[in-house]
Structures are given as structure tokens and as C-alpha cells.
Amino acid sequence: MRDVATHAKVSAMTVSRVLKGDPKVAEATRQRVLGAVDALGYRRNETARRLRVGGSGMIGLVVTNLANPFYSRLALGVQEAAYEHGLRVLLSNSAEQVDREKGLVEDLAASQVDGMIVVPAGGSHRHLAPAALRGIPIVLASRPPGGMEADCVLVDDFGGAQAATSRLIEDGHRRIGFLGNPPALYTGAERFRGYWAAHEEARLEPDERHVRRGPTDVATAERAALDLLRDPDAPTALFCTNNRLTQGAIRALRTLDVPVSLAGFDDFDLADVLGLPLTIVSYDADEIGRRAGRMLIDRISAGAGADLPARRSTVPTEVIRYGTQPS
Description:
GO molecular function: DNA binding
Helix content: 40-55%
Largest sheet: 6 strands, parallel
Structural class: alpha/beta
Keywords: DNA-binding, Transcription, Transcription regulation
Protein name: LacI family DNA-binding transcriptional regulator
InterPro entries: HTH_LacI, Lambda_DNA-bd_dom_sf, Peripla_BP/Lac1_sug-bd_dom, Peripla_BP_I
Mean pLDDT: 90
Domain HTH lacI-type: 1-53
Number of helices: 11
């Protein structure tokens, strides 16, 4: 700024007033300063400015699997909320590893971010408590806090799974297989609970032989689905707990060429043109990020000493259907 002032033959204070848009600066002076800015390629150091007034102007976002389109949508929602308040987002991937997550949040804390949004790995999240992170505000997304209190934004995992499984039962299916994440994962556990509740509501009991609670990606889901569908008493429908598992099941159906209906959590590209009877639990993944971002900004704005109770927000789901459903 001093270089600009010297070049324009004005004071550094005048340069500051021009850059802030002060209407009291004479037009000739303003043009001279802006000309000097262009000539010298001056850019204001936003990081230094924010540190002077308090805050880095950055928030951290830690997700568990960047390969999953769900997290890219969530990140876009966070970025939208951050942009509205002039904040930037630092994105990291924990790969569902608690130790890696701990290292990432420690690095973000050392970078003096104003707050963090974390999709937590593992079941205990005490390392994410503000007291463990130098008082940095935190919001959890997709999974609730374990062993601590924190704001969180969730999806209606139970309700969505129950509604989709009920649709399969209404279609006449009585042998409905389950392809789900490991039971230790919150979303997998809640979606299994919804699957089971739909059967209980219809006075049916799922066959444990048709339940697979271990697949984590397309390949493992495909193998699990092939194993289920090759059984002489195979399910006539499958419920899958996320888009990757649904895609693995679709691969298995294509391999075996069997008339099996599918239901799954998470919409995905081209689901509507596959020509398969698909029942999908859909929701606005961007909205999860937006809500988490706004919650975090509330915390940042309130200040470190604010005594705000932990809040929980749940994004609703809807069931949509693709392809020709059985009559």
C-alpha cells in the first residue's frame, strides 16, 4: 500500500480510503490511486487484514470419502453458505480413518481457521470438542456427535429407509435383501433400522440370510449381491443403503439377468434411464452443507464466550421411482 501511495503521490491513508470506496475522496485522486494499483499489480492481503480484525476468513471441511458424489454436493452447499459471508473453505478427506481425521483437524486448528465442519469417522468424537481444538467452533454433518455435544446436520436416514422398504412391500415383495454399510457406521445402522421397521409394520420378519452388512463400495456390493441372488431362495428385491452399493447391485443384476427390484438411498446420475425398477430415497445433499455452514457461521458470529445449546437439524427425504414397477 505504501508503494501505491508513493506511485500516486498520496498518503497511505488515502490509498486505504480509495480501496474502501470512501465517497469523500476526490474523483481525480481516486483515478490516480486506481491507476497506481493497476500499474503495480497491487492485491490487498486479505489474510493479514482478517488477522488484524480477528479471524482468518477460512473454515475447514473434513469429509470421509471424496470419491462419493454425496460429499461433493455437501461441499458445494458449505461453500455457498461460506461465500455469502466472505469465507473460504479448506477441504480435506479423512478416508474414514480416525487417526487421519485427528491429524487433519489439528492441522486446521494450527492454521487458525475460524471454524470447522466435519463428517466424523469412528464412534467417539471427543477429539472434535471445541475444548480440544483451542475453542474453535465445530459442526458435524451426516453423523451425530459421539461422546460430546455439538451442532449437527443429519439426513432422515431411518424414515427414508423405512419408506423405501415399505414401497417394496406394497409392490408385493416378501423376500427383500439388505446391502448395507458396516453396523458401526451411524447411517448404515439407522437405515438398517428403517428397513427392519418397515417389515415389522407389515407384520413380516426379514430373513437374516438375506442381510449383508459389510459392503463399502461398488465392488464389494456387487459380490454381496451376486452371492444373495445365486441362492435358490433368493430375494425378489434388494434395499441398498447408499448410491455406491446400489450401483454394485445393478452390476450384479446385469450379470445374472434376473428380474429383481431395487431400492436404495441416494439418487445418482442416469438412475432414470437404466430401464430398471428403481425406488430411490432422495434428498438435497447441498442443503446439508448449507445448513451446516450457516450453523457454523452462527457459532463464529456469537464468539467464543457464547453459551449456545447444541442444535440438531434433519434434512427430509422423499421416495422417487424410476422404471416400470411390478404390478
